[in-house]
Design a protein that fits this description.
The structure holds two protein chains of two kinds.
Chain A: H1 5-17, E1 22-29, H2 39-68, E2 72-79, H3 82-85, H4 94-109, E3 114-120, H5 127-142, E4 146-154, E5 158-160, H6 161-177, E6 187-191, E7 212-217, H7 221-230, H8 236-265, E8 269-273, H9 286-293, H10 303-321, H11 339-346, H12 352-358, E9 365-372, H13 377-393, E10 398-405, E11 413-415, E12 422-424, H14 434-437, E13 442-443
Parallel strand pairs in A: 1-2, 2-3, 3-4, 4-6, 7-8, 9-10
Antiparallel strand pairs in A: 1-7, 4-5, 5-13, 6-10, 11-12
Helix pairs in contact in A: 2-4, 2-8, 4-5, 5-6, 6-13, 7-8, 7-9, 8-10, 9-10
Chain B: E1 5-12, H1 18-27, E2 32-41, E3 44-52, H2 60-74, E4 76-82, H3 84-90
Antiparallel strand pairs in B: 1-3, 1-4, 2-3
Helix pairs in contact in B: 1-2
Classes of the chains: A alpha/beta, B alpha+beta.
């Protein structure tokens, strides 16, 4: 036989016992040619485009799941940043109406999340950007599937502190209008947001993209944890090699399925995002890999180094396996969506400051972190500024997805349900940075941005 | 015509008739068995069957449904996957 029994069984075991899957296939769709100053025509154009392609995406993805026996967990859509497409439509309710249209189209065809309700405002805001930001609390309270983002900083432009001030208040408003503040789980604030990220909540179809682009996110951490478990005694160089080989294999599978899916949909293939993404399933946890490496609890001294080794090995293996690596391609460390991460918070091993340190070595920032509902807006802005500064200065993507849970204080338990998981509210420093944050303005781009 | 090959893999407690039942199901759909490998691994019966479905009118998902009856009855885990996934993951 061309393949040994062990090789075949390795793949089969990954699927049966280690949650080997394709984490997401995300179809990026350009909506700029749907623009119309008549809101009804505009909405009809958007609905048709999203529903037609959404239906096809789901159908074709299911066929490939059957063919390869590899589950494709999420089938999603990202669209042109909505602030761009509402420019020509002056009606006051245009932003919310477009959000509702995206939500309805997704619901009608079975797309669980649609990303792109956002804007790129790293240097300043247009009137449309401002309208979009103002609409966020209402949008997240009246839709279920729409995801949003705001890119407020970049290495070449610096940080838009005025937008960051607004966001502190906006996040509190979103939280106040949705149960347990859950609306905030659908909104990410970015520095250096990638235009081809397939992962929610921050996915959008960038302006440099073609009409359509199929992007894919590879399997989760369960497979990597499995091989680390089988290699308990090797040194870290060997361990890196083992992880690299596994990342190579799972990325190749992602590449195969992504390219075939793009071909079947007659759209260009975009990228493979080689991020490891946790799920709430036991064993499918990035923190679980770090702990399997020999760190007692995620957050203990040594966790950042272990995470750095993991991310590096996954990148090296993944880069060899795919013709087009893109998106975030780091490793996600969402708190509520990762069971071991949650345990670490519960046992006091993991603080928000340590999470911030992690983001210096991996994507994608402070993710799915519940904070006390009475945290001041300026403090939220300051946490965002800290995290995005790491991205800006280090020329990488960082993001923030914080949930100020109304009525909850540090240590309280909160359940967001389903894919979004459960968590314990984290403690936030009570010292204030109000005077610094409220200075506003634009923080200049770092000197490392001057590369020409 | 391009050859379409699949792998049928079985994991479970060793018992009489596993290969017979699966071979028979495959045969009735004009699927040719190209290779077969079996072993006891960690106390479990493990089998991989490489089969050519080029001449068969059955789809992979229909075959899966048929084999799931054997899966339930004999308490096995049966996977059906197109060969390309193994080629992609294990051959550079």
């Amino acid at each position: 036989m061309e393949y040994s029994l062990e090789e075949v069984m390795e793949t089969v075991r990954m699927t049966l016992y280690h949650n080997f899957d394709i984490r997401t296939v995300t179809l990026g769709i350009n909506l700029k040619d749907c623009i119309n100053s008549d809101l009804d025509i505009f909405k009809a154009n958007v609905y048709d485009r999203v529903s037609v392609y959404g239906r096809r995406l789901i159908h074709e993805a299911q066929d490939l799941e059957d063919k390869y026996g590899i589950p494709i967990i999420n089938k999603r859509i990202s669209v042109t940043p909505v602030s761009l497409i509402i420019e020509a439509c002056a009606q006051a309710d245009a932003p919310v109406e477009i959000a509702k249209t995206l939500d309805k189209a997704s619901k009608d065809v079975g797309i669980d999340f649609i990303g792109g309700y956002g804007a790129l405002v790293q240097k300043g805001m247009t009137r449309a950007d401002k309208r979009l930001i103002d609409s966020l609390p209402e949008v997240f309270s009246c839709t279920e599937r729409v995801c949003g983002f705001l890119n407020v900083a970049s290495t070449v432009s610096g940080m838009n502190m005025d937008a960051i001030i607004m966001l502190g208040k906006t996040l509190k408003e979103i939280a106040g209008r949705t149960e347990n503040g859950i609306g905030c789980a659908r909104f990410v604030v970015f520095a250096n947001a990638p235009e081809d990220n397939p992962f929610m909540a921050g996915a959008f179809h960038g302006v440099g993209e073609p009409d359509f682009s199929l992007n894919i996110g590879i399997s989760g951490p369960g497979v990597v944890r499995g091989v680390v478990e089988q290699n308990r005694d090797c040194d870290l160089t060997e361990l890196s090699g083992v992880i690299k080989r596994t990342a190579f294999k799972i990325t190749r599978a992602g590449e195969l399925i992504g390219r075939e899916l793009a071909h079947n949909l007659s759209v260009p293939f975009g990228i493979v995002d080689i991020s490891l993404a946790s799920t709430t399933k036991v064993g499918d946890s990035v923190a679980g890999i770090v702990e399997m490496m020999g760190v007692e609890k995620m957050g203990a001294p040594g966790s950042t180094a272990a995470l750095a080794l993991l991310v590096d090995a996954v990148k090296k293996g993944g880069a060899m396996a795919s013709g087009n690596v893109g998106g975030l391609s780091g490793t996600f460390i969402p708190v509520s969506e990762d069971s071991c991460m949650n345990d670490a918070v519960r046992f006091g091993a993991l603080s928000i400051e340590k999470l911030e340190a992690f983001t210096a070595v991996c994507s994608v920032g402070l993710d799915m972190i519940a904070i006390p509902g009475d945290t001041k807006a300026q403090t939220i802005s300051a946490i965002i500024a800290d995290e995005l500064a790491i991205g800006v200065v280090n020329n990488k993507t960082t993001g923030v997805r914080l949930i100020p849970v109304p009525g909850k204080k540090a240590g309280d338990y909160v359940n967001f349900g389903g894919l979004l998981g459960e968590t314990y509210v984290m403690n936030i420093s009570s010292f204030s940075s109000n005077d610094f944050i409220l200075r506003g303005g634009r923080m200049p781009a770092p000197v490392t941005s001057m590369r020409n | 015509m391009k050859r379409e090959q699949i792998f049928i893999t079985v994991i479970g407690k060793d018992q009489k008739g596993i290969i017979a039942r699966i071979s028979n199901a495959v045969f009735t759909h004009n699927i040719n068995i190209e290779d077969l490998n079996q072993k006891i691994m960690g106390g479990y019966f493990v089998m991989t069957m490489l089969a050519d479905i080029t001449d068969s009118s059955i789809t992979i998902s229909q075959l899966k449904k048929e084999l799931s009856a054997i899966e339930d009855e004999m308490h096995l885990k049966i996977q059906v996957q197109h060969e390309n996934i193994f080629k992609t993951m294990h051959r550079v």
